[in-house]
Every structure is written in C-alpha cells, then in structure tokens.
C-alpha cells in the first residue's frame, strides 16, 4: 500500500467499471434500497468509451433488471431477423444449415446492439436512481484492511512523471471505501488480476483462455444493407493456424459490424491476428458487401473463452468479481453481456442481504452459489466442452463433437464429462524455428488498412508525460529471450501497433508506443514469458469508442 495521504469517502458498495455487470449491480442495489450509497468508477473518458463487443444481445438479463426497458427507450432497436453460418474457403463458402444446431444457438428474440450505447443508457438509469457514476476515474490501487480484506480502491490519481514520481500538477486521488467492493473491469482487469493472485482464487480451476476480438464499423451501400441480418463464419483465412472466426451484424443507419476473433492459444508466433482480419475482408462474400462503403471506427478487445471450468472463485473478503472479470462468455454463442448483467444483479442481491444483516467485508458466498448454480452456470455448463474440443481436435471435429455435446447437455448429460484446457495461452506459443513465416498481403487502403491508420479510428489518446502503463517485469526479456526464441511476437499480436523491435546502431531495441494502446490486454495474456503487466493509465485515457 502506498504512503501517499489521501482523503477517503465511505460507501456501501464501490463498483469498479461501468460495463453491463457493474451498472446492473448499481441499478439493482438502488432498486432494493434507494438509500444505499453506491458509486461506479469508470476509467474511460465517458461511460461506453471503452466498451467493445459484437454484439448480439440476449435481453434475458435486461428483462430481469428493467422489465420496461422498451418504454424507457433502451437502444435495442434492431431485432435479429436471420441467422447465417458459413464455412469459408479462400474463394468460396459452404452454408452450414441451421436445423441441426442445438436450440441455444438460435438468435430469435435477440437484438443487434452497440453495447457502448446500451451502457450509456444504463448509466442514465443508474443516475436517475441516485447512483454516483464517475467516468474518467481510473482505479489504480486496491486498499486492504487490517485483516487482509479488500477495503476499497484508489481512484483519480493524475499528474505523475514518466518515472512515477509526482509531477508539478500531481493529484493524489481519493480512497473510496466500501462495505463491499465489486470489480467489474472486464477481461483481465488489473485490479481483478491482483485480487485473484492475492487470494489464490484460481486454485483448482482450469487456466483461463482468451481470444482477441477486432472490430470495424462500416457504412455500406443501402442496397446491400439488411437490418437484423447476422452472419458467422469459420475456416479461411485462419485454417489450421489458429481457432477463431468472424461475425457480420447489420444494425441500423446502413451500418454493419465486421468483427474477427482469433483464439490466443495459437502455436505459431509468426501469426499476425490483425492481418488475418484484414485478409478476411478480401473474401469474395465480404468484399462484395463492403465495396463502395467506408470504415468509420476500429477497435480491439480480449475475450474470455475458458468458460465454466475456468471461472475462478468469485469472492474474497470484502470483494466480488463480476462479469468478464470472472469469464462468463458462452463461446459458441459469442455472448457474455447477458451473463454479465445477471452476475451484477446476483452480486447486488447478495451484498444487499449481507448489509441488511449487519455484515460487511466478508465473503459473499451467496453470490458465488447463485452464479454457479443459477442461470449463468446452467448457460455455461451446457457449452463447457466446445472450446477444449476445438483446441484439441480442430475445427471440423469440434463442430460435430461439440454439436453433439451441446445437444446432450440440453437434455441434461454429457458423454465427455468436463474437459480441461491444459496450457495457458502464453505457454501454448511455440518456438519460431518450428514454424514457417506467414506472408501477408499488403493492405490496399480500401478494404484493408495498416494498423496505425486503423488505430486512428479508435480515437485513442494517452497523456504522454505519465508512466508507461505497459510495464516489463524484466526489460531485458524482449530482446534477449523473446526475439531469438519467438521472433518477439508482441510485434504482431498487438492489434494497435504498440510494440516494435527497432534496429539501432548498438543492436535491436524493444520500443513501447503506449499512446497507441486500445486497452485490449492481449499483451498481458499472450506474452510467452509473461513479462508484460498491464496497469491502468490515468483516467480518461485510452480509446474513445463512439458506438462499439
């Protein structure tokens, strides 16, 4: 704990992160007791600025939280009208019929949404109930109490020099204390990572698995636009190099979300996920859709993919992990926002009951029980083997075996039990000498774009006179270890061009362009030496996504 003296404010519940989980928790707490003191702290410049998701939203969480959301103007305006699944080859495609798919794969009743805009609307609902919502407030430190419990967080520290010392305009921030602290930071949150390690919450669980999701918003020719059309693809261009696939969602205003996901357990360090995404857009099916249109936004974000068997223990004294801080994405459905909302509500209900009973700073075991045994656990348990099957047996085998397993799980049993994931994504990376380099075509500037040009469409910005938030445990590792063994894959796995190996007179140098960072957390996950630690920059920095 730092020695800096700070003012402290007391709340019933302190919530870190204004995503669907954190905002659902805040709203539910106020619904249960309007006098409850609740604060939500968000590192983005505004609510929604750091939200990036597909997204086709299953409204089950919202139905439970705010049943009259339609009357209240929630931005769920484009119902899904048709579902398409394709297996791609380089020049063609095969449609995978819908009828053999288990019912859980059906998108009927779901909506194509901007989750950033959904979160903006949810924040308005929270504020109307009296929740204090503070954007631009990065939480940089966990505060622990005398008995080792989580007591609160430090938020709003500004003005440090690059070396970490206080600068001339230094603001120490504040301590925000709560009877309970909810961490709803999304995937690989810096405080969540610390809490998971401190209390050994992953003990006995499978390693968490991740994907990298990249997304562009395109305005297309109105003649090609089909609001509510949902398409998913697998196969080309990844082939056997990596698991993953794409999504193409038609929303309103002649806009289309074009997204690409690469599972981060790939072996070949020469793989360049961003360039796989750019190559994908040259497939005839995608090219035909996008030609004549223009890209208007870009971003990237890691996705939790470990599922049911990788969820850590969610509670420790004084703290609960919500949503993607735990990892609640249903991988075959590519959906986690509904579970994030349900988790926020469950945590709120457990905290409300505890405070009513005069408790504080203990473990909210009722929350954990509800997640594992309630709707979230049931949703994730049915699909728990799809990801490990894909990793072990490849795409085609996993389609048939995974489909069979989802069908039998719908009926309450599995032939396979619960499969494990094995290695972490970092440990899955193999030596560069075992793999061929991949020759990627140069972006054409019309359908495909170089990384730095695309990053400018994320509106990302960082105050440059601050400590680099991408910290190296050992600065020698990138050049002395990762470069000779793995051809330093940070040059390629980062979707924002943060990391470079630059040839200097005295040899290669590892350069970190932290101002480009879109806060995806891929480096923290995939670095084979686990040498990069992502910590939060000062509040308000990072991407400024308009309607991702």
UniProtKB/TrEMBL annotation:
Top-level lineage group: Bacteria
Gene3D superfamilies (alphabetical): 3.30.70.20, 3.30.9.90, FAD/NAD(P)-binding domain
Molecular function GO terms recorded: 4 iron, 4 sulfur cluster binding; electron-transferring-flavoprotein dehydrogenase activity; metal ion binding
InterPro entries reported in the protein's UniProt record: ETF-QO (IPR040156), ETF-QO/FixC_UQ-bd (IPR049398), ETF-QO/FixX_C (IPR007859), FAD/NAD-bd_sf (IPR036188)
Domain annotation ETF-QO/FixX C-terminal: ranges: 445-545
EC number(s) recorded for this UniProt protein: 1.5.5.1
The entry's keywords: 4Fe-4S, Electron transport, FAD, Flavoprotein, Iron, Iron-sulfur, Metal-binding, Oxidoreductase, Transport, Ubiquinone
Coiled-coil regions listed in the entry: none
Domain (ETF-QO/FixC ubiquinone-binding): residue spans on this chain: 210-303
Cofactor or coenzyme needed: FAD; [4Fe-4S] cluster
Function according to Swiss-Prot or TrEMBL: Accepts electrons from ETF and reduces ubiquinone.
Name of the protein this chain belongs to: Electron transfer flavoprotein-ubiquinone oxidoreductase
Protein source organism: Roseovarius indicus
């Amino acid at each position: 704990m730092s020695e800096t003296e700070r003012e402290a404010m007391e709340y019933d519940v302190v919530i870190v992160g204004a995503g669907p989980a954190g905002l659902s928790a805040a709203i539910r707490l106020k619904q249960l007791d309007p006098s409850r003191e609740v604060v939500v702290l968000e590192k983005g410049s505004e609510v929604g600025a750091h939200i990036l998701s597909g997204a086709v939203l299953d409204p089950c969480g919202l139905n439970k939280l705010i049943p009259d959301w339609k009357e209240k103007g929630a931005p769920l305006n484009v119902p899904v009208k048709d579902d398409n699944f394709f297996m791609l080859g380089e020049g063609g495609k095969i449609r995978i019929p819908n009828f053999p798919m288990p019912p859980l794969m059906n998108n009927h009743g779901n909506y194509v949404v901007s989750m950033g805009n959904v979160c903006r609307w949810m924040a308005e609902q929270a504020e109307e109930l009296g929740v204090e919502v503070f954007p631009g407030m990065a939480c940089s430190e966990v505060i622990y109490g005398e008995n080792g419990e989580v007591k609160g967080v430090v938020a709003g520290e500004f003005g440090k020099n690059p070396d970490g010392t206080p600068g001339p305009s230094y603001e120490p921030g504040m301590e925000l204390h709560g009877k309970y602290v909810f961490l709803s930071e999304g995937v690989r949150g810096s405080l969540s990572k610390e809490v998971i390690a401190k209390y050994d919450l992953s003990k006995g669980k499978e390693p968490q698995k991740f994907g990298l999701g990249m997304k562009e918003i395109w305005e297309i020719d109105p003649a090609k636009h089909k609001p509510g059309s949902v398409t998913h693809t697998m196969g080309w261009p990844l082939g056997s190099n990596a698991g993953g696939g794409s999504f193409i969602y038609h929303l309103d205003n002649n806009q289309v979300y074009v997204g690409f996901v690469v599972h981060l357990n790939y072996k070949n360090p020469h793989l360049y996920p961003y360039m796989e995404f750019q190559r994908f857009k040259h497939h005839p099916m995608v090219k035909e859709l996008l030609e004549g249109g223009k890209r208007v936004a870009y971003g990237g974000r890691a996705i939790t993919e470990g599922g049911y068997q990788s969820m850590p223990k969610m509670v420790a004294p004084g703290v609960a992990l919500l949503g993607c801080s735990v990892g609640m994405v249903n991988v075959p459905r590519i959906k986690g926002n509904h579970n994030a909302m349900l988790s926020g509500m469950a945590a709120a209900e457990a905290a409300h009951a505890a405070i009513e009973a005069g408790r504080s700073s203990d473990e909210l075991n009722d929350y954990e029980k509800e997640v594992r045994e309630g709707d979230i656990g049931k949703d994730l348990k049915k699909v728990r083997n799809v990801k490990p099957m894909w990793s072990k047996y490849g795409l085609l085998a996993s389609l048939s075996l995974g489909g069979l397993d989802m069908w039998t799980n719908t009926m309450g049993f599995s032939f396979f039990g619960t499969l494990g994931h094995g290695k972490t994504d970092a440990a899955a990376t193999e030596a560069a000498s075992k793999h061929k380099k991949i020759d990627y075509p140069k972006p054409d500037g019309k359908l495909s774009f170089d990384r730095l040009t695309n990053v400018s469409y994320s509106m990302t910005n960082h105050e440059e006179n601050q400590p680099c938030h991408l910290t190296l445990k050992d600065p020698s590792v990138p050049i002395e270890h990762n470069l000779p063994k793995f051809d330093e894959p940070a040059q390629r796995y980062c979707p924002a061009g943060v990391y470079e190996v630059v040839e200097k007179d005295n040899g290669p140098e590892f350069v970190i362009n932290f101002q480009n960072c879109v806060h995806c957390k891929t480096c923290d996950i995939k670095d084979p030496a686990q040498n990069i630690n992502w910590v939060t920059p000062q509040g308000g920095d990072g991407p400024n996504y308009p309607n991702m």
